[in-house]
Design brief:
Layout: E1 8-9, E2 27-31, E3 36-38, E4 52-56, E5 89-92, H1 95-100, E6 104-109, E7 112-113, E8 118-119, H2 127-137, E9 143-147, H3 151-163, E10 167-171, E11 180-181, E12 189-194, H4 200-211, E13 216-218, H5 225-231, H6 233-242, E14 248-252, H7 257-272, E15 281-287, H8 292-298, H9 306-309, H10 313-318, H11 338-344, E16 348-352, H12 354-368, H13 374-388, E17 397-402, H14 407-413, E18 417-418, E19 423-425, H15 438-441
Parallel strand pairs: 6-17, 9-10, 9-13, 10-12, 12-19, 14-15, 14-17, 15-16
Antiparallel strand pairs: 1-3, 2-3, 2-4, 5-6, 7-8, 11-18
């Protein structure tokens, strides 16, 4: 990626932007560590010590008259407006709220539930990442490379089917069952299945190698502002729905990117001026026994210590009910990452057991009337824990992010097609020519 010659440093505020953005630019990228400012699209600051964050020209968000995520266009780092009906929806709970004794519980449902106006056809809020990320890169001429435990892979495959943008997706064996689409699988999707002993982090390492090939481009993970700002629309939608920022925000995390996104969106909403003067407390949760961020946070540490926080990680991941919430290298310690998000919002973390998760899932589905994914159930369990331990009071405004659900409802309206792997990689160091088409590994041999 060509680095901008317009990069420079300046002190900035978290809650408002005074940076001069060129007339032909919608936003700048600001390093959360050194405050360097860039006007080109990139994943890293020159120092590579912190996450970049978008600073939008528009501080007062005016919603566009389109369905789905596209209504938040002014706070998405893309130029063309997304017109798909995929997007977050917020509703005020009555049944679950009554069960928990809460007066102002708002549920952000990110899945398929047409009766509520929810049309995310891959049933995961990862679709909120996929649309702006692919939109941003659709004219680059390169193929997008990413790793996924399953839900992100499904979301990017779906948007690839809609746009024709080629994607190379590396998924561990445990995630293959999640690889289905609500349409026929296009040739633009190239799925790589990893060996039985590999996990999500192994997939990340292999994806990094593939992304270095000619014609390939790394999607970027947590460093990709399009992903974070797409997920941040959950908080924005909730704030517009209730005309204020919540007091508390609940979400389960694997990498924690969604938690960072909620924090950053809250900062923008403070800067808007119409939604309150206080950041919501972030209540982020992990599924035991694999919960490295939870253990580090409870110990008061910014850094994750592998032997202490995730001993025998692959065994622990195998024992999780919500195994998709697993990342051995999460953006926890990095400046602008999960630790800073929780600290800045005076939030907390939860370690939720499998039994607590299953009980919460059954409760939510029975009371609210829609099926949800295990990660969403982890968030429900953390809300129950917070209520039981008096961490929130009955009148406070609470947003519960149901990050995925509605598959059973989707199956009533759509035929689901299984995505078959195009290649198999036993581990992260296999020869790339064994799993990638010849034109990428040997570009001079490409026929025209």
């Amino acid at each position: 990626m060509i680095e901008s010659k317009m990069a420079y440093s300046r002190n900035i505020s978290d809650t408002h932007g005074t940076i001069s953005i060129p007339e032909n630019s919608k936003y700048s990228l600001v390093c959360t560590g050194c405050n360097s400012i860039y006007f080109d699209d990139r994943l890293k600051c020159q120092t590579d010590a912190a996450l970049l964050r978008t600073n939008y020209r528009s501080k007062h968000l005016d919603l566009k008259d389109v369905p789905g995520i596209g209504k938040f266009h002014d706070w998405l780092p893309i130029n063309d407006i997304i017109t798909q009906d995929s997007g977050p929806i917020t509703y005020k709970s009555t049944e679950l709220a009554a069960e928990l004794g809460l007066k102002n519980l708002f549920i952000s449902f990110n899945g398929y539930w047409p009766e509520r106006g929810a049309f995310i056809k891959t049933c995961s809020f990862k679709e909120l990442e996929a649309f702006p990320t692919i939109q941003r890169e659709k004219n680059s001429g390169r193929s997008l490379v990413l790793a996924s435990a399953g839900n992100t892979a499904r979301a990017f495959s779906h948007v690839s089917a809609l746009t024709g943008v080629k994607v190379y997706i590396v998924v561990p064996s445990s995630g293959i069952s999640r690889m289905w689409l609500p349409e026929e699988v296009p040739d633009s999707v190239h799925l790589i299945k990893m060996g039985a002993n590999c996990d999500y982090t192994d997939s990340i390492h292999l994806a990094e190698r593939i992304a270095s090939l000619p014609g390939m481009m790394a999607e970027g993970g947590a460093r990709n502002v399009a992903r974070r700002d797409g997920m941040g629309t959950v908080m924005v939608d909730a704030a517009f729905h209730s005309k204020r920022l919540p007091d508390h925000y609940f979400q389960a995390i694997g990498s924690g990117t969604g938690g960072i996104a909620a924090w950053e969106a809250s900062i923008r909403l403070l800067g808007d001026g119409r939604f309150g003067m206080k950041l919501p407390e972030l209540h982020l949760s992990q599924n035991l026994p694999f919960a490295p961020m939870y253990h580090a946070w409870k110990a008061g540490r910014r850094d994750i210590i592998k032997d202490l926080d995730m001993p025998d990680p692959k065994k622990q991941i195998h024992e999780m009910y919500a195994d998709i919430l697993s990342n051995r290298e999460p953006p926890y310690s990095v400046i602008g990452g999960v630790y800073d998000a929780i600290s800045s919002t005076k939030g907390t973390m939860y370690g939720i057991s499998n039994n607590e998760t299953k009980t919460a899932q059954e409760l939510f589905e029975r009371i609210e009337g829609i099926d949800i994914f295990p990660p969403a159930a982890v968030a429900v369990a953390s809300l129950i824990d917070a209520v039981n331990n008096h961490k929130i009071n009955a009148k406070e405004y609470v947003v519960l992010n149901i990050t995925g659900g509605g598959v059973k409802r989707l199956e009533e309206d759509f035929t689901l097609f299984k995505v078959e792997p195009a290649a198999y990689a036993e581990n992260a160091v296999v020869p790339l020519e064994d799993i990638i088409p010849n034109e990428h590994t040997h570009p001079r041999n490409k026929s025209h």
